[in-house]
Amino acid sequence: MRVLHVYRTYFPDTQGGLEETIRQICISTRQLGVESTVLCLSRTPEPASLEHLGHRVTRAKQTFEIASCGFSYSAIALFRELSKTADVINYHFPWPFADLLHMIVKPSAPTVVTYHSDIVRQRWLGKAYDPLMRRFLQNVSAIVCTSQNYFASSMVLPRYAEKVEVIPIGLDETSYPNCSDSDVRQTETQYGRNFFLFVGVLRYYKGLHILLDAIKGAPFDVVIAGSGPNKAELEKQAAKLGLGNVHFAGHVSDLEKQSLFKLCRGVVFPSYLRAEAFGVTLLESSMHAKPMISTEVGTGTSLVNKHKTTGLVVTPGSPSSLRAALDTLWQDAQLAQSYGTNARARFERLFTGKTMGEAYTRLYRGLLSEPHPS
Fold first, then answer.
1. Pick from 166, 120, 161, 160: nearest CA to 139
2. For residue 103, how many other CB atoms are within 10 A of its CB?
3. Please, what sign has the CA dihedral across residues 188, 189, 194, 197?
4. Distance of CA 203 to the CA centre of its chain
5. Which of 27, 56, 65, 192 holds its CA 20 to 30 A away from the CA of 359?
């Protein structure tokens, strides 16, 4: 079976939670006979086609961008060509240009939308986009939501309830590199151990400005691994607050990230808006048996992190609530370890790549066995 995944950006150009999710779907379904290709945009698509962990990545040159939405003239012909050989097409939402691709090309294959997030920030553009979005979502064969929490709190998904299936994100542990004792020691030399760790793209909804306010005068360190559009602003805030206990690690390799997870006391994930629909970092934390601190935004983050079971869930946007949770895990190492143990057990039960891969493959095969409406 051949599946074409469609999203605005992908490895090796960018790496974030959504890109990792697509990668994990490709890896976990490959073991069940699914051959995946990812179509994405790139400012410098050289080479235009490459192999990545057992699946093909095809890149069209980005022509222009509006409000973080990439557009490409060449992608239309490329999508038309790739869709001819695809058994199933899996769009990843939100990317309005993908809606246009679907409406222009009108592919004959069954279509799935993995609905990662509502459109939260560009509300003024959202009103103009709404008719296209409704037509697109009505036209596709199936919609995947990553958690029941997100389905219940979404203003969009209940309209299409008859075609929505919930498939939580899962991780294939073997797809991550094994770091040696030497790798861990090298990272420890730079950052120490027992720090709190954040991993992700530094975007507005991640709540890192709230985290910086929360850790002023704290007896523990925080390592922020990742880069993104808010990096300079956050560094300026840290300097203004006089924070000597925060370390901006910038972009880290997969190997260094593994070492950071091994060394940290726990993972802090202060995202405070619904744009944070799930949180792959929380899954990675669970995989490493680390306790978590997250906020209650009515999405999949609270599916992964169960309050007072795998960690602590606090009020979004509140530095004092965040600080109280950090202090709790800092002062009680036994509690932190207990939460981490529970997190690992929950990961093995609910969030493995095998579980996710089986669910997607079942969905794909089900669509192929049904007549596809044009």
1. 160
2. 12
3. negative
4. 13
5. 56
Residue 245 DSSP class: S
pLDDT more than 70, % of the chain: 97
Residue 68 region by backbone torsions, left for phi larger than 0, else alpha for psi between -120 and 50, else beta: left
- Decide if 112 contacts 91 (C-beta within 8 A): yes
Confidence at residue 122, expressed as pLDDT on a 0 to 100 scale: 59
Q: How far apart are CA 240 and CA 215, in angstroms?
A: 13
**CB atoms inside a 10 Å sphere around CB 12:** 11
* pLDDT for position 374: 40
Domain 174-350 part of CATH 3.30.300.20: no
Q: At what angle do helices 280-287 and 333-350 cross, to 10 degrees?
A: 110
Amino acid of residue 322: L
Domains of the chain: which residue ranges?
Answer: 2-172+353-368, 174-350
Q: Tell me: the pLDDT tens digits for 302-317?
A: 999 999 999 999 999 9
Separation of CA 353 from chain center: 14
